[in-house]
Amino acid sequence: MRITGVKPLVCHCYRTNWVFVKVTTDAGIHGWGEATLEYREPALAEAIQGMERRLLGRDPHEIEAIWHECYRDTYFRGGPIGMSALSGVEMALWDIKGKALGVPVYQLLGGKVRDRVPCYANGWFSPAKTPDEFAEKAKAAVARGFSGLKWDPFGKAYLNIGKAELRQALRCIEAVVEAVGDQVEILVEAHGRFNVATAVRIGRALEDYDITWYEEPVPPDNLEALAEVKQRVRVPVAAGERVYSRWDYQRFFELRCADFVQPDPSHVGGINEVKKIAAQAEANHIAVCPHNPSGPVANAVSLQLAACIPNFHLLETMALDVPWRAEICDESIVFADGLMGIPDRPGLGIELNEEAIAQHPYDPRDLRHYRGDLTDIRPVNAVAWYKEK
Prior knowledge:
Layout: E1 3-12, E2 17-25, E3 30-34, H1 41-50, H2 52-55, H3 63-72, H4 80-101, H5 105-108, E4 116-122, H6 131-143, E5 148-151, H7 163-180, E6 185-189, H8 196-205, E7 213-215, H9 223-232, E8 237-239, H10 246-254, E9 260-261, H11 271-283, E10 287-288, H12 296-308, E11 315-318, H13 325-328, E12 334-336, E13 339-341, H14 354-358, E14 387-388
Parallel strand pairs: 4-11, 5-6, 6-7, 7-8, 8-9, 9-10, 12-14
Antiparallel strand pairs: 1-2, 2-3, 4-13, 12-13
Helix pairs in contact: 1-4, 3-4, 6-7, 8-9, 10-11
């Protein structure tokens, strides 16, 4: 079997644009990957297309060799674009291998340690602005079965936060906790917003709410700053979605930066890289919670990984999505009692519809975090994309 093509496909999905990868072979077997990188989709698509020249004629089963050579021969190594492109291609190679051998990818990675995956919800809040609106949205999400809720309550604050803004954020958290807190895990997202002093101030205020974690309290550029915040607050810290290689993660673990580590399979190098990082985390007695706010292939990959990582803890899941998600793919995910079932179909267990993807072409979007409309991340007609039981 030989690789005959590598193709990026970009699909608008309201908040951003999904970036998929299709790798074809002369045996008629193709594989799918996802490299969605918010707001840098054209550059990413070009990077994926540029990998085709190296991969043509290669045996797709040689995943480790292909990955190593692509990484080695990128002179300016690492970074979000290069690693995301490599991630999407690597996923597609695993999909091909699983299909060729007639087994799900988790069987190729050592087999399952669990049959269902505990999930928490992101995106459940759209387009809430006030504490009361967040509370009502939280009740609705819990009614759908979610046992964990994550959101960023910090408006458009950056580096510092005023007293009034902080009080509003804390009122929002309190409203959600009062509405559903005894039933669900509360995960507070900061999106790398704050300087050390402000992050510590907020972290200490969060001690009153029995939260599961405080995510990305400081910008991702300085791991020492993150480690300092973790040392100075008494709530668990989660981070790692913007760490782009196992080499960067080595320093992350040395500094004990977080209590929960969040590698993103679409950005950190793909499936095998998450497995390697998870093993590093396991050796440090740290739980793995993959970053997973993207599209259907990324979710399929995350489920395969969650199936076979012993120190896996929670999977991020978008509570609702654009209605055309069901048109562009055939995912069949069962969600019940806060748990997602792991598909047993060969490969990643998902197929995409290229014609349907073409009906939703690339549409530029900009970062919302600092302009006051962060919670507007889903259209009014957003729907559940999984089967509820």
